[in-house]
Design goal:
36% of the residues lie in helices and 0% in strands. With 69 residues, the chain is mostly helical. The mean pLDDT is 64.
Length: 69
């Protein structure tokens, strides 16, 4: 084999390797950025967070604001 043929073979191998998908592709969990909708969706240890309107005394945030006026 001459050097031109070897170069062509090497180029072909590198092209086919570049087209192969990574064998680890898709194995990592997707990272979801926190935003207003998802932030606070779970509390410590994955327990659901208490919604802000569910207060211990049964009053909602809107009721408290109106009472404080």
């Amino acid at each position: 084999m001459n050097s031109r043929q070897q170069n062509r073979d090497q180029d072909e191998k590198s092209r086919s390797a570049a087209q192969m998908p990574d064998k680890n592709a898709g194995t990592q969990p997707a990272v979801v950025p926190a935003n207003e909708e998802t932030e606070g969706a779970t509390g410590a240890l994955g327990t659901p967070a208490t919604p802000p309107e569910m207060e211990k005394d049964g009053e909602t945030e809107s009721n408290k604001k109106e009472k404080s006026r």
